[in-house]
Write a structure and sequence with these properties.
Layout lengths: L8 E2 L6 E2 L2 E4 L1 H4 L15 H13 L4 E3 L7 H8 L8 E6 L1 E4 L2 E4 L3 H14 L5 E7 L4 H5 L3 H10 L3 E7 L3 H10 L2 E5 L8 H10 L2 E5 L14 H10 L4 E7 L3 H15 L3 H7 L1
Parallel strand pairs: 3-4, 3-12, 4-5, 5-8, 8-9, 9-10, 10-11, 11-12
Antiparallel strand pairs: 1-2, 6-7
The chain binds NADP nicotinamide-adenine-dinucleotide phosphate (NAP).
């Protein structure tokens, strides 16, 4: 089997069913001010469409984008015309990236404007998941207008679920107390947000892992870094999905194959165990 479809799971109690690997789309729209090991060209439309088709064939249904990812939202809107229902789209609010620089706005007014703009850019009338794109001052961000506004948008049916992509344990847990999901950094290099995963597990909330490969830096190591990364990530039962960014079809294939190796006991290891 080479599809993740049988391993789709619930994102906490949000009602969303997602694949255990999501496709991060920073590299679809932005190649400035990023921390990847090597510089790169944005994929053209044909290459981006091919990656999306390949992801879908491999059983990935989750796409992660954001207004701060350059042209990512707009490009997805164009590329996914006529296939909206087949995807779970996660976007964000709070961070803007203009002329090579980020700035942040967590007000209620900006949240409304940003969500409306995401709907327009993604050519859709609903968003599956909207996360606050925190600047790292998580607790003070949670006290601004953004979170209550997302709660209202969920009640109104404009978004199906909401949550927080932060940098601190306190922020992650605070975000889960009032929202559906936290996106955390959890990889071989950094596990500081582990208490957020534990909290999510005991409260049936959703966890998405970002920077699963430490933005690719883990792949510069010698031993099988991808397998070790996914073993670590999936060993925590709160994890619904690891979002890995790639615009390389061979890497996408390898990521799915490795996820399947971790998620399904192989015949070899089953024989060994018996
Ligand atoms: P990542 O997924 O840890 O790493 C992506 C990098 O790893 C890319 O440069 C990719 O290059 C490389 N890669 C992927 N698979 C590989 C493989 N099998 N072998 C070797 N290299 C491989 O880092 P990320 O892009 O920073 O984070 C992933 C996603 O999480 C983002 O796209 C975004 O959606 C989300 N994110 C959110 C936040 C936030 O909310 N604050 C912050 C960061 C990231 P190739 O293209 O060459 O494969």
């Amino acid at each position: 089997m080479n599809s993740l479809q049988p391993f789709h799971r619930s994102l906490g109690d949000s009602g969303l069913r997602i694949s255990p690997l999501g496709l991060g789309t920073v590299k679809f729209g932005r190649n400035q001010g990023v921390k990847y090991p090597a510089s790169f060209e944005l994929p053209d439309d044909r290459q981006a469409l091919d990656i999306l088709a390949q992801a879908q064939e491999l059983g990935i249904n989750l796409l992660d984008t954001a207004p701060a990812y350059g042209s990512s939202e707009e490009r997805l809107g164009e590329l996914l015309k006529n296939q909206r229902k087949q995807w779970i789209i996660c976007t964000k609010v709070g961070e803007e990236f203009e002329e090579g620089k980020s700035y942040f706005d967590f007000s209620a007014a900006h949240t409304l404007l940003s969500v409306e703009r995401s709907l327009r850019r993604l050519k859709t009338d609903y968003l599956d998941l909207v996360l606050v794109h925190s600047d790292g001052n998580d607790l003070s961000v949670l006290n601004e207008g953004v979170y209550p506004t997302l709660a209202k948008l969920k009640q109104a049916g404009v978004i199906r679920a909401f949550g927080f992509s932060g940098k601190t344990t306190e922020g992650g847990i605070g975000a889960l107390e009032q929202g559906d999901c936290a996106m955390v950094t959890y990889n071989l290099h950094e596990q500081r947000e582990l208490p957020v995963l534990d909290y999510a597990l005991s409260h049936n909330k959703g966890i998405l892992v970002k920077k699963a490969l430490a933005s690719g830096h883990i792949c510069l190591q010698d031993e099988d870094p991808l397998l070790a990364s996914l073993k670590l990530i999936y060993s925590h039962p709160a994890v619904a999905s690891a979002i890995i960014g790639t615009i390389n079809p061979a890497h996408l294939r390898e990521n799915v194959a490795t996820a399947l190796r971790v998620l399904q006991p192989s015949e070899a290891s089953a024989c060994h165990a018996s």
